[in-house]
Known about the structure:
The complex is a heterodimer of chains A (407) and B (388). Chain A has 407 residues and is an alpha/beta fold. Chain A contains 14 helices and 14 strands. Chain A has helices at 8-15, 21-28, 89-103, 127-131, 143-155, 174-182, 184-187, 217-220, 234-246, 295-308, 326-336, 351-363, 385-391, 395-405, and strands at residues 85-88, 107-111, 136-138, 159-163, 197-202, 227-230, 251-256, 263-266, 279-282, 287-291, 313-317, 320-322, 339-346, 372-376. The longest helix of chain A is centred in the N-terminal third of the chain and has 15 residues, at 89-103. In chain B, the strands form four sheets. A six-stranded mixed sheet of chain B has the order 2-9-10-6-5-4, sandwiched between helices. Chain B has a two-stranded antiparallel ribbon with strand order 1-3. A two-stranded antiparallel ribbon of chain B has the order 7-8. In chain B, α9 links the parallel β9 (250-254) and β10 (278-283). The longest helix of chain B has 26 residues, at 55-80. The N and C termini of chain B lie far apart (75 Å). Chains A and B meet through α1, α5, α6, α7 and α9 of A and α6, α7 and β12 of B. Chain A: It is found in: Plastid, Chloroplast. Chain A: Its cofactor is thiamine diphosphate.
Amino acid sequence: xxxxxQGTGAATALTTLNSKKLVARSRTSLPGVDAGRRKRCIVxxxxxxxxxxxSSSLLTLRHSHKLFANAVATKxxxxxxxxxxxxLLFEALQEGLEEEMDRDPHVCVMGEDVxxxxxxxxxxxxxxxxxxxxxxxxxxxxxxxxxxxxxxAAMTGLRPVIEGMNMGFLLLAFNQISNNCGMLHYTxxxxxTIPVVIRGPGGVGRQLGAEHSQRLExxxxxxxxxxxxxxxxxxxxxxxxxxxxxxxNPVILFEHVLLYNLKEKIPDEEYICNLEEAEMVRPxxxxxxxxxxxxxxxxxxxxxxxVNKGYDPEVIDIRSLKPFDLYTIGNSVKKTxxxxxxxxxxxxxxxxxxxxxxxxxxxxxxxxxxVMCLSSQDVPTPYAGTLEEWTVVQPAQIVTAxxxxxx
Amino acid sequence: MALSxxxxxxxxxxxxxxxxxxxxxxxxxxxxxxxxxxxxxxxCDAPSRSVTTSSSxxxxxxxxxxxxxxxxIAADSLYKSxxxxxxxxxxxxxxxxxxxxxxxxxRKDAIITSYRDxxxxxxxxxxxxxxxxxxxxxxxxxxxxxxxxxxxxKKDACFYGGHGIVGAQIPLGCGLAFAQKYxxxxxxTFTLYGDGAANQGQLFEALNIAALWDLPAILVCENNHYGxxxxxxxxxxxxxxxxxxxxxxxxKVDGMDALAVKxxxxxxxxxxxxxxxxxxxxxxxxxxxxxxxxxxxxxxTRDEVSxxxxxxxxxxxxxxxxxxxxxxxxxxxxxxxxxVRKEVDDAVAQAKESPVPEPSELFTNMxxxxxxxxxxxxxxxxxxxxxx
Lengths: 407, 388
């Protein structure tokens, strides 16, 4: 295990595995916030794709069937892509979904009110008109059954995208997700693959009440056989959606209720994000802050204050909740020696708890201070606005925590 | 008819080779046989009681059922000698269901069932040796030894298992039917579940969707009258499982009569392809307890079990049929049984020899390309890094 964490040496060794220097550079060098050198990932799709490709010269060197992932994202407001179009996060998800449905006739969507209604968060708007009722299916309210149906369909080769109107409703389908979705590939000795994507909004919204503010990543994280990713920007939302649909493994894509209206400019050409890779949001020197989903924005807000106070935090959006991208995280820990995890999960048994354990186990020698984890309180989310604010981590608490760690 | 019998007998004298097919009638001329028990129907017209079959088909029933019976008995003794561990749910008594269903459908129609799946696996073309290896946790097993008794699968024969959680296979089965409809295939899915699972909510959820979307799903309730230790009259307010679909047509079938099962399944397939889902309730019985840890005698009397064995045993029924219609003689059938027994014993011996999985198999088939510990490019084609 430790052989992998050898900094740049390992990375260059790995470049021999894949001759794409583009990818290697994005991993080892931590580029500054230089938008001009922003690496666009290029997809040379198969012959049936009709998308226009970016005009990068690297395209000519590659074989037509290889794809690249872009892990490095600059902060949203400094993106200086000359081409590209601006859209909201839910539109980015819809774009990704639509592109994949165009590309592969096996992709279908099932969920409550995804068809004629257009999706309760408009992610599937317009798809039913375009693809018909057999590909965008309005299900009755029976999460257990339609999740099971999606998994059964996936066993034969279809690629359903199952939407939970709210992630919390998927608790009703937990048996199907855990036993069938996660385990069938293993218990059948590899005979069946389950290429489903289970997605839906979760997280604490604006006074939605306890049952509609659930963070299910902590419940699903120990299911063997599934992958979990959390999107946080329109760019990675579209990229992760596409990657999840193309993956042969079951992927749970966690979206957040409050992030659907984020606006960002994303590239025109087709791109995909790597499912297992973390995103370097802001490189720094003093402390590593690991976060995902909505807390990324609280962290960036706190980072502004911290920068004014003279700190240089490195912010990583871990994106991949299962498995953790310990490669990127490890490199960061080795540089800064201090880790703060900011998450929206509950304190007990959350993603942060697992991540703390993983970091302590693997990088203990590189830590100068104990790993600190800021998570939500172990309470059901109250309705009252003031109380609800205090269940999740606020930027002020992040600033205090960083100051405490960096003493 | 008498002439052909004579020639059969003389053939036997002249050529005493011990091959299985020596005295098996390969006659495929249709015979019509009336089922003993009429079908009961709900919201549909029951199929005719006259089943078209042939001598060779009935003989195949006999051989297949004898093989299944022997396999289950062998599994029983293997379990008692601790070569099979964990849970082992045996199907003896219910064999008519598996063979009757197979006779009515093709290998492209899908079957999904619960944990009582050994005989269904065999019916779908599974090898005895694969079954025993899987039961004993060997690498040769149909799931590489990683599934066990409750997780038999055979993808090339469209057999989708093999599921441990009661009722969880019902939505999966409706998903299979959905895929068949999506791909515009003219095939159906048989989703088998028990009288215990018939009280699961997901059954009704899945049934609603199947009826709404006109899926070619056939839900087969294998009513062996006991949900583990609880009799049907103690667990279901309405034990007429074929009527429980309400808006979905149903058919009640004598599940111990392989020919009735065949007729019902054929009827159901035609119905499902035209009109959507249908429920088949198969009135059947299991001689063993729920599983090997259940003696099967605390909730029912021994007399009841032996009574059913005497009056309704599926293999005896087929044997009587063969004898009355002069398709085979007593001795021929006994020889067939002996051969089947030998087949099973050989398979057991072979399975006992086969090796256990390698320790590295613990981590294989977790993910496709095992990318839980490896990170691939977005297209899963190139390995980027191995995560610690």
